[in-house]
Amino acid sequence: MAEYGEWNRKGASLSDKTARKEYKVDQEFIIKGIEDGKLEFRYSSVWGNPFIRILRRQFEEYITSELGPEYLAKARGKIELQKIKKEIAEIEQQIIVLSTRKEELQAKKAKLEEIMSITAAGKSSRKLKLNLKAPKNINEQPPAFP
Question: What is the pLDDT of residue 140?
Answer without folding.
Answer: 61
